[in-house]
TrEMBL record:
InterPro entries: CheC-like_sf, Flag_FliM, FliN-like_C, SpoA-like_sf
Protein name (Swiss-Prot/TrEMBL): Flagellar motor switch protein FliM
Taxonomic classification: Bacteria, Bacillati, Bacillota, Bacilli, Bacillales
Family assignment from sequence similarity: Belongs to the FliM family.
Pfam families assigned to the protein according to its UniProt record, in alphabetical order: FliM (PF02154), FliMN_C (PF01052)
Gene3D superfamilies attached to this UniProt entry: CheC-like (3.40.1550.10), SpoA-like (2.30.330.10)
Membrane-topology annotation of the record: Peripheral membrane protein
Subcellular location: Bacterial flagellum basal body; Cell membrane
Top-level taxon: Bacteria
Name of the gene: fliM
Location of the Flagellar motor switch protein FliN-like C-terminal domain: 254-323
C-alpha cells in the first residue's frame, strides 16, 4: 500500500512544484519507469502472509497451553510467548542453532516427514531439576546426558507433544510421535539445505532460567495442509464444523448436571425450647392446608406447584402449575 502523506508533506510538495524546484513531468517519468526488486532464489518465500498469521495464532495457543501444563507439572513460575515467526532456508536454521542443544525430533502423523523442536539447555535443565525435586537450577551439560536424564526428558517432551497436538487440532488432526533426542544439530538432516522452513521462536522463562524454544516446520511436510491455513477457510470451517460440535457437547453436559428437587409440605415456627423437647411421635403443626398445593423448589428456587399422591405404593407428586419468574409474565 502506498504511503499516506501528511498535510505538511502535501503543502511542501505543492510549494516545490509551484516554485519550480520539482518538475511534474520528471515525477511522472519516475512512476512509469520499471522498478527492479532483488530476489534471492535460495531464500524463497513459500509461505504467504496469511499462512504465517495462521501459524502464529496456532502457536500462540500452543504457548498458552504449554504455560498452563508446565506450571502445573513443575509447580513453579512459567511464562511462554511467541517471540517471532520467520521463514528461512533449513541450512540457515541449522547454522543458527547452538552446537550443543536439545533437539526433539518427532513425526506429525499422518503428515509425511518430521518436525524438530529445539529447546535451550538452560530451560531444559531447569525443567529436569524441578522434576527431580530441585529449585530449578540450570546446569548446561547437554553433551553428557545420563540414561536417567534422557528418559525423564523424553517423557517430558512427549507430554509437550500432546499439547502440540491439541493446539493444532483446530486445523488438522495430528498424532505427534517422538523419534529421538539429538544434541548436535550437524547430525540432524530433516530436509535439503535449501528447503524453506518456518521457525517459530517461543520466549520461555522457568523460574529464574530463561531461553528459547524453536519449532522448525519444513514447507515440504506441511505443504498438503497449507490451504487449511487460510484465515478465511479456517474461520469458516471452525464456524461450520466445530461450533455445532461444541454446542452439542455443552448441551449434553448441561442436561447431565444434577439438580436437587425439594417438595415443601409446609412450614412451622417453634421456640428453641420446644425444639429441644421434641421426641419421637410428637406432632408439629404446619402452616399448610391439606387442600393447598405444595411448593416445589429446584436448586432452592421455587419452580412449580403440585399435589401429593401415590404411584404403585410410592409417594409421588403431580405438577399442576409452573411458577413464572419475574419478567416472564405478559401484559
Amino acid at each position: 500500500m502506498a504511503d499516506v502523506l501528511s498535510q505538511g508533506e502535501i503543502d511542501a510538495l505543492l510549494s516545490a512544484l509551484s516554485t519550480g524546484e520539482m518538475d511534474a513531468e520528471e515525477l511522472k517519468k519516475e512512476e512509469t519507469e520499471k522498478k527492479i526488486k532483488v530476489y534471492d532464489f535460495k531464500r524463497a518465500l513459500r509461505f504467504s502472509k496469511d499462512q504465517i498469521r495462521s501459524l502464529t495464532r496456532i502457536h500462540e495457543n500452543y504457548a498458552r497451553l504449554l504455560t498452563t501444563q508446565l506450571s502445573a507439572q513443575l509447580r513453579t513460575f512459567v511464562q511462554i510467548s511467541v517471540a517471532s515467526v520467520d521463514q528461512l532456508p533449513y541450512d540457515e536454521f541449522i547454522r543458527s542453532v547452538p552446537k550443543m542443544t536439545l533437539l526433539n525430533v518427532f513425526e506429525p502423523v499422518p503428515l509425511d516427514g518430521r518436525f524438530v523442536m529445539e529447546i535451550n539447555p538452560n530451560i531444559a535443565y531447569a525443567m529436569l531439576d524441578r522434576l527431580l525435586g530441585g529449585q530449578g537450577a540450570s546446569v548446561n551439560k547437554v553433551e553428557t546426558l545420563t540414561e536417567i536424564e534422557s528418559k525423564i526428558l523424553t517423557q517430558l517432551f512427549q507430554r509437550n507433544l500432546e499439547t502440540f497436538r491439541e493446539a493444532w487440532e483446530s486445523v488438522v488432526e495430528i498424532d505427534p510421535i517422538m523419534e529421538e533426542i539429538e544434541v548436535n544439530p550437524q547430525f540432524l538432516q530433516l530436509v535439503s539445505p535449501n528447503e524453506t522452513v518456518v521457525v517459530i521462536s517461543l520466549s520461555t522463562a522457568i523460574g529464574e532460567a530463561t531461553g528459547m524454544i524453536n519449532i522448525c516446520l519444513p514447507h515440504v511436510v506441511i505443504e498438503s495442509i497449507l490451504p487449511k491455513l487460510s484465515v478465511h477457510l479456517w474461520m469458516q470451517q471452525k464456524k461450520k464444523d466445530r461450533v455445532p460440535m461444541e454446542q452439542e457437547a455443552l448441551e449434553l453436559n448441561v442436561k447431565r448436571a444434577p439438580l436437587d428437587v425439594v417438595v415443601e409440605l409446609g412450614k412451622s415456627e417453634i421456640t428453641i425450647q420446644e425444639f429441644l423437647q421434641l421426641d419421637k411421635g410428637d406432632i408439629v403443626e404446619l402452616n399448610q392446608l391439606i387442600e393447598s398445593p405444595l411448593l416445589v423448589k429446584v436448586a432452592e428456587q421455587p419452580k412449580f406447584l403440585g399435589q401429593p399422591g401415590k404411584v404403585k405404593e410410592k409417594i409421588a407428586l403431580q405438577i399442576t402449575e409452573t411458577i413464572e419468574e419475574e419478567g416472564d409474565g405478559h401484559e
